[in-house]
């Protein structure tokens, strides 16, 4: 038996048990070749309702535990994930396609949220406020919101779960997780290790099926679910907002992006190229913070384009389990078709392909660089979510800022400059929740991750991330 096989599970994990509602199953395939990895027992919303009921029943006892008690279980979960790192990463690569090195990195990244928020469980502080009369005292405390519904995507099948549920569990919430049907095996491996870590029954629940719309609707409309945390498209995020309106839920939404990467004339070009490759081609460009538009100063445009193109041409394409692979497959045929459409549209409007530009087969698309990009091209306003890097020109700081902000999205942004004044001025002017300055990889458990405008609301990670899972209660003590 392969090392990872012991972590393969095919049922939902609800109220401390592995259960299936139907005998019907759906297949999970490897995006690198379309081969079947395994089958998952499908379930309907009746089983999801049982998960909600279990989480709701477990909430009073779980929230009553001390932060130190919750931390002990979270720490055990963290240790189990780290101990099974290679097996989990292999499962992740099989079902998501990302290179094994990236999967190994995601296991570390995802586990870091569990460790971080385990520590933060003991630091959910409140305030005392001076009384407004001599005989009154004012105290403010934070309490857990209740049951949290977590809806997670396929592109980070481990980290998007831990980034949501670790703060929820740390503060005293119970959780119902609905992972993507494209990558359920990674999620269920996490559930197995959570079970081993010792979470009480009903605290940690994971529901799997291939019907995301009905699952999301039930969680949004349930009176027993107090908060929804979702990562995915802006369109679906808007739908969840509408479905949650009737119960006035708290929402954390991490939605679409259109990240600009600005290279100013005084930038270290070699450093910018290195950052550009990292920020664009991780997971074959299939991340929400991947660069969508490269804005390059006219005076360094040709130098950057030449060096960047050469670096992109050196990227190795292939099955994520292969040695030295940098670019894995796209998740499905629709993604391939979308990339073809972006390239064709750019060429029809004057864009010049400097590298790549073609699908190798039904699974892989070449890492692509397109020069002479213009605002009329489709990728100027639409998220690419693939390995295509369009290069736009600009001449002034004001023009770069205006181009960067010319989008409904506001998640991540990047800029490269050696001018301290410029770095502050431009960063403050960019309408984005996150700015990477001379750095292409900005995600970390210690900093708040999230966007503005149509890229969502709320923050994940850091001390700010735990606040989104609490309610503030004010207590006035009179006649003291």
Automatic annotation (TrEMBL):
Which InterPro entries does its entry note?
Ald_DH/histidinol_DH, Ald_DH_C, Ald_DH_CS_CYS, Ald_DH_CS_GLU, Ald_DH_N, Aldehyde_DH_dom, Aldehyde_DH_Superfamily, Succ_semiAld_DH
Q: Does the keyword Oxidoreductase apply?
A: yes
- Biological-process GO terms, alphabetical: gamma-aminobutyric acid catabolic process
- SUPFAM superfamilies hit by this protein: ALDH-like
Q: Which CDD domains match?
A: ALDH_F5_SSADH_GabD (cd07103)
The protein's GO terms of the molecular function aspect are:
succinate-semialdehyde dehydrogenase (NAD+) activity
Q: Which residues form the Aldehyde dehydrogenase domain?
A: 18-474
Keywords assigned by UniProt, alphabetized: Oxidoreductase
Active site residues according to the UniProt entry: 254
Q: Which family does the UniProt entry place this protein in? A: Belongs to the aldehyde dehydrogenase family.
**What protein name does the entry list?**
Succinate-semialdehyde dehydrogenase / glutarate-semialdehyde dehydrogenase
Source organism per entry reads Flexibacter flexilis DSM 6793
Read off the lineage from the record: Bacteria, Pseudomonadati, Bacteroidota, Cytophagia, Cytophagales
């Amino acid at each position: 038996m392969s090392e990872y096989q012991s972590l393969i599970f095919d049922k939902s994990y609800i109220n401390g048990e592995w259960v299936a509602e139907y005998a019907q199953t759906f297949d999970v395939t490897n995006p690198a070749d379309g081969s079947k990895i395994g089958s998952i027992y499908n379930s309907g919303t009746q089983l999801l309702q049982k998960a909600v009921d279990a989480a709701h029943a477990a909430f009073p006892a779980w929230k009553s535990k001390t932060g130190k008690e919750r931390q002990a279980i979270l720490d055990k979960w963290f240790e189990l994930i780290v101990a099974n790192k290679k097996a989990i990463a292999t499962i992740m690569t099989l079902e998501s396609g990302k290179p094994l090195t990236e999967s190994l990195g995601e296991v570390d990244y995802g586990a870091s949220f569990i460790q971080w928020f385990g520590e933060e469980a003991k630091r959910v502080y409140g305030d005392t406020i001076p009384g407004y009369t001599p005989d009154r005292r004012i105290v403010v405390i934070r309490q857990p919101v209740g049951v949290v519904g977590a809806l997670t995507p396929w592109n980070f099948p481990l980290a998007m779960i831990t980034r949501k549920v670790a703060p929820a569990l740390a503060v005293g919430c119970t959780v119902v997780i609905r992972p993507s049907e494209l990558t359920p095996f990674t999620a269920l491996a996490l559930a197995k290790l959570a079970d081993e870590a010792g979470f009480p029954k009903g605290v940690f629940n994971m529901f799997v099926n291939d019907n995301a719309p009905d699952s999301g609707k039930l969680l949004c409309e349930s009176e027993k679910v107090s908060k929804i945390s979702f990562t995915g498209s802006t369109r679906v995020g808007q739908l969840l907002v509408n479905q949650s309106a009737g119960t006035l839920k708290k929402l954390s939404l991490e939605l679409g992006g259109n990240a600009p990467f600005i290279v100013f004339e005084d930038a270290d070009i070699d450093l910018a190229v290195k950052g550009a490759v990292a920020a664009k081609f991780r997971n074959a460009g299939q991340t929400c913070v991947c660069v969508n538009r490269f804005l390059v100063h006219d005076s360094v445009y040709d130098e950057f384009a030449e060096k960047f193109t050469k670096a992109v041409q050196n990227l190795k394409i292939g099955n994520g389990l292969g040695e030295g692979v940098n670019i894995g497959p796209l998740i499905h045929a629709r993604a391939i078709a979308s990339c073809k459409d972006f390239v064709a549209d750019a060429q029809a409007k004057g864009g010049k392909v400097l590298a790549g530009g073609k699908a190798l087969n039904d699974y892989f698309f070449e890492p692509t660089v397109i020069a002479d990009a213009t605002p009329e091209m489709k990728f100027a306003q639409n998220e690419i979510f693939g390995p295509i890097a369009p290069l736009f020109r600009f001449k002034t700081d004001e023009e770069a800022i205006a181009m960067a902000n010319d989008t409904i999205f506001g998640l991540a942004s990047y800029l490269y400059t050696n001018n301290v004044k410029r770095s502050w001025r431009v960063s403050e002017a960019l309408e984005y929740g996150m700015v990477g300055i001379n750095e292409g990889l900005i995600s970390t458990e210690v900093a708040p991750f999230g966007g503005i405008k149509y890229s969502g609301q709320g923050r994940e990670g850091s001390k700010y991330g735990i606040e989104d899972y609490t309610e503030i209660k004010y207590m006035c003590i009179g006649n003291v």
